[in-house]
Amino acid sequence: MVGRVLGTKDATPLEFWVGVAAGEFIQLDDVVALERVLPSGEVVHMYGTVGQVVARHEGARFDSDVFLIEEGILPAEVSEAAHVTATRFEPEVFVPPRPGQPVRIAEGDERERALFFDQMDRRFPVGMTRNGDPLWVNFEFLNGARGAHVNISGISGVATKTSYATFLLHSLFTSGVLGKAAVNTKALIFNVKGEDLLHLDRVNSRLDDEARVRYTNLELPSTPFESVSSFAPPRIDDPKATADVASRSDVTSFFWSIHEFCSQDLLPFLFADAEDDRAQYTTVVYNVMAQLRKIESNDSGAVVIDGVAVRTFRELADLITDRVQSEDQRHQWAGPAMGIGTINAFVRRLQGSVRHLGRLIRSDVPDPERHRIDRDRSQVTVVDLHNLNDRAKRFVVGVTLRRAFEEKEKAGQSEELLVVVLDELNKYAPREGTSPIKEVLLDIAERGRSLGVILIGAQQTASEVERRIIANSSIRVVGRLDSAEAAREEYGYLPAVHRQRATIVKPGTMILSQPQLPVPLVLEFPFPAWATRASEAVPVLGDGGPEDPFEDL
Q1: Beta strands of 223-272 (E only): which ranges?
Q2: Quick one: average pLDDT of 228-234?
Q3: Residue 125, beta-bridge partner list
Q4: Which H helix or E strand runs over 319?
Q5: What are the CA-CA distances from residue 278 to residues 272, 325, 507, 538 (Å)?
Q6: How far apart are CA 314 and CA 355, in angstroms?
Q7: Is the distance from CB of 516 to CB of 496 less than 8 angstroms?
Q8: Strand runs labelled E in 311-434
Q9: What percent of the chain has a predicted confidence (pLDDT) above 90?
């Protein structure tokens, strides 16, 4: 027994207070259990979690009494009490506990029942308590059976959002919860910070024995990702289209051919700012797109216009500019009765994108098929964006996600999932305005669960992200939050105490909410077993690292 139900405070079926017994202690997040015997003789088992603990002097009236009490001049007793939020009743007879009833810490099977872990037929670990007990999530709320998607919020650099997202992937792939579908379940990760995620297949040199024990307690291997392919944009003005990466040499560069740009209707993704669909020049965009769809191409991926092969994006942009401004062809390319001001607005944005998109849309490199983002190569595909400006990032994210979603639509529903990890979600699906990328992300959020497309989205501030994307996320996670952000309505699923705690949690600690549990879980997750930046990666022979004997030859 750790204490008894207090009689000096109201006890309800939803919450009650426990007086801590002498020589015992209760801390935040402890799980407790007790029973109440009904007049019929039926026993109701009650479970709950501790959300707050208070200590006070009983008998003191003034703040200064504390000094007199400690000196033995005034008599007083120290009391501790814990506030408990009920989580489960067995059977579901919702009666309050009676004052004086003994309360104990729930362990083992009792803890499993208190947190509904015993009802999760398919579950995988998402972290652990401070004392090392594993915490689980019901896989049915991730794979689309009863819900889907994960949303992670937190301050950049402190909340460890990306580290936790990759830990969820690692747990998903290695816990066995996927069963036979694990072979063909894929992950698509967009890397937005440095070259941090280009080393997921490398052992983390900072991993110690204590961290390995944590993985063992979670029944997970302390190993990096086994099957990873990395793609990065080509270097600017590089005729060989070498990947713009400094920390490793086996990254494949990616771009789209001029023919793909024209035939696959990629033009709107150049104008993916949130206000675009409210501008008149979007009519020009879709008229030009219809004309580009008719253009023929040659074997190299270039398009042929009036007998001339167009091989670079600058040549294509100049051609489009000439057509929409030409008096003879303006009506056909820009649309009837389109004003010159609207056309010029379109041209300014088109020409402004050439500098940023020129290396990503081209047909001046032999064998362009080698430069495709191929998700079939490995289980995990990393697409590097960190060297691109915001307009180019939006283009790559929008085009890549649309293609992936369309392929899943053609394949139909299956247990083989595609998990998309996207940070800075507020850039691609802001609360205000519309854009082609936002429409793709909304499609994933609202229809993805039926197709096996799962979004793990992250952002600093959930209040700046489209509400429907947040609302469709069954699992919500927060790390360290700014106090003003924590007070917003988007975090209404967190009790007041958890909102306050979110402003002070340390890196590696997250607060997770899932539909099956009435209270959030405060968890810790192990230090990554995979390198999260180039400096952590254990060198591999032949990669240009310090252990490479052929370096500089």
Answers
A1: 228-232, 252-253
A2: 96
A3: 136
A4: helix 313-325
A5: 12, 22, 41, 50
A6: 8
A7: no
A8: 380-384, 418-422
A9: 76
Cα of 541 vs its chain's centroid, Å: 33
- Token readout for 391 is 């307009």
pTM > 0.85: yes or no: yes
Q: Above 70 in pLDDT, residue 403?
A: yes
Q: Give the dihedral sign, CA 237/243/249/252.
A: negative
Kindly report the number of other CB atoms within 10 A of residue 45's CB atom: 15
Strand, coil or helix: what is 210? helix
- pLDDT attached to residue 549: 45
Residue 371 near residue 253, CB atoms below 8 Å: yes
Complete DSSP assignment for 237-291: T-TT--B--SS-S-PEE--B-HHHHHHTT-GGGGG-STTGGGSTHHHHHHHHHHH
Query: Domain 123-254+372-536, what architecture?
Result: 3-Layer(aba) Sandwich (3.40)
Preceding omega of 91 cis (within 30 degrees of 0): yes
If residue 46 lies in a helix (H) or strand (E), which one and from where to where?
A: strand 43-58
Would you call the peptide bond into 75 cis, given omega within 30 degrees of 0 as the criterion? Answer: no
pLDDT digits (tens, 9 = 90+) for 188-206: 999 998 898 999 999 999 9
- φ/ψ of 392, rounded to 5, equals -70, -35
* Termini Cα distance of the chain: 71
Which of 230, 240, 275, 204 minimizes the C-alpha distance to 527? Answer: 204
Q: Where are the domains of the chain?
A: 3-114, 123-254+372-536, 258-357
Q: In what order do the strands lie in the sheet with 296-297?
A: 296-297, 303-305, 308-310
480 token code pair: 């360290």
Task: Retrieve residue 464's tokens.
Answer: 């700046």
